[in-house]
Design a protein that fits this description.
It comes from Trichococcus pasteurii. This protein has 14 helices and 8 strands. The protein is an alpha/beta fold. Bound molecules: 5,6-dihydroxy-NADP and zinc ion.
């Protein structure tokens, strides 16, 4: 560790009220103002099929409410704008998202756009809009149905633009949910693929803030390692087809939420290049977000071994128990174990498994440039050439 490395200055703020456990949806009555006119948002239908939507309606009691469904995975700007129009006509004052990252992120955008003066595209940067600040947003709560993104406890939204083939995030503290309901039983209807996606996405969120360079942040490192250990411990149980165990799902849900709610990121450098490279893949062919990450993270570890040496070694030793061989052998062991972990969840680790070919790489690198992702990683030293090498490593 370089002697000057120290914990970075930071502000920590996270106002999200969490209601966790069994039968929590009814607390919506306590959390939502009595005179609110509520718009309930949801995705392709799982919220209705599982009965969760009806439970939300019941909890709202006499409040006026309406609905906006069909929010697609990787929520699309143009589609979300229909909800913004609807809100302006109908005068809704509060939003409740029932779903996963896509519905919650879509709702965050709707909350911001419906109070934005001007063209809402301009709240996005990254070559899409003007990057104007979100000064205010409509209050909203969430009922989480898939643990994966931590969107339920962070102020981030990721929105896709179909024509531009762009996927862009915004972080703004007006985008924290007022509350999030976390009922582990709501995960019982999730297909195996989505459970594996959730475990993998959150694993990579932790790695983005951990696999950088050491600053001597002992608690943040132990938090991160604790989360990674938990995923490794419960991964197979979460996917198990036999009778579902409540505590396994409860651990899964709360651990995922803690993967990207600000704690592990406090005072430490952040990378986020795996996410940036992954967004270009989803924008190109619609691959599930998590499945881009399980391919890109191991490739990044290999290409960026030298830059991330100290933390890779710490990761290999503390997370995977590497205790023999020289430093490089331990690091390589850690990288191998990471790939094996993803594969044990039936996640892809190569481009061939997610429909990306060598001929796509030029386009993805061009798109990284268009979206101003040409100086990535914790030291802003991941140039387009390095990103290209990572894409090539993933072939
Ligand atoms: O649309 P429905 O019918 O609800 O089906 C969904 C969807 O098909 C289904 N599902 C959700 N809960 C279910 C269920 N099926 C059965 N039972 C349930 N209980 O699962 C599918 C995936 O849902 P989605 O919300 O897309 O998944 P996820 O939570 O992984 O969200 C992914 C989106 O979040 C963004 C991703 O880029 C992607 O757009 N992210 C958001 C982040 C944030 N806000 O902080 C950070 C992440 O890094 C990520 O980028
Ligand atoms: Zn993610």
């Amino acid at each position: 560790m370089s002697p000057s490395a120290e914990i970075m200055d930071f502000e920590f703020y996270n106002p999200v009220r969490i209601a966790f456990g069994r039968d929590q949806v009814k607390k919506i009555d306590k959390f939502v103002p009595k005179d609110a006119k509520v718009l309930i948002t949801y995705g392709g239908g799982s919220a209705k099929r599982s009965g969760t939507f009806e439970r939300v309606v019941e909890a709202l009691g006499d409040r006026e409410w309406g609905e906006f469904g069909g929010i697609p995975a990787n929520p699309v700007f143009e589609y979300l704008m229909d909800a913004v129009e609807n809100i302006k006509t109908e005068g809704y004052t509060f939003l409740i998202a029932v779903g996963g990252g896509s519905v919650i992120d879509g709702t965050k955008f709707i909350a911001a756009a419906s109070l934005f003066e001007g063209d809402p595209i301009d709240i996005f940067a990254s070559g899409v809009g003007k990057g104007l600040p979100v000064e205010k947003a409509m209050p909203f709560g969430t009922v989480l149905t898939i643990p994966a993104t931590s969107s339920e406890m962070n102020p981030i939204t990721v929105v896709s633009f179909e024509e531009l083939q762009a996927k862009v995030s915004i972080k703004n503290e007006n985008l924290f949910p007022a509350f999030s309901i976390l009922e582990p039983e709501l995960t019982y209807t999730l297909p195996k693929r989505q459970l594996a996606n959730g475990l993998s996405d959150s694993f990579v969120h932790v790695m983005e803030n951990y696999l950088t360079y050491p600053v001597g942040a002992k608690l943040q490192d132990r938090w991160s390692e604790g989360i990674l250990h938990t995923f490794i411990e419960i991964g197979q149980e979460v996917l198990a087809d036999e009778e579902i165990d409540y505590n396994t799902r409860a651990n899964f849900m709360w651990t995922v939420t803690n993967g990207f709610n600000g704690f592990t990121a406090s005072g430490v450098p952040g990378d986020w290049s795996s996410h940036a490279l992954g967004y270009e893949i989803t924008a190109l062919n619609g691959t599930d977000h998590a499945r881009t990450l399980s391919v890109i993270l191991p490739a990044t570890m290999k290409v960026r071994k030298k830059e991330k040496w100290d933390k890779l070694l710490q990761y290999a030793e503390r997370v995977w128990g590497a205790d023999s061989g020289d430093e490089e052998a331990r690091i390589d062991f850690g990288i191998r174990k990471t790939e094996e972990f993803f594969r044990s969840l039936e996640m892809p680790t190569r481009f061939s498994e997610i429909g990306i070919e060598e001929t796509d790489i030029d386009y993805m690198v061009e798109q990284l440039e268009v979206h101003k992702r040409d100086r990535l990683s914790e030291r802003a030293d991941q140039t387009l050439d390095i990103s290209r090498k990572i894409y090539e490593m993933a072939l």
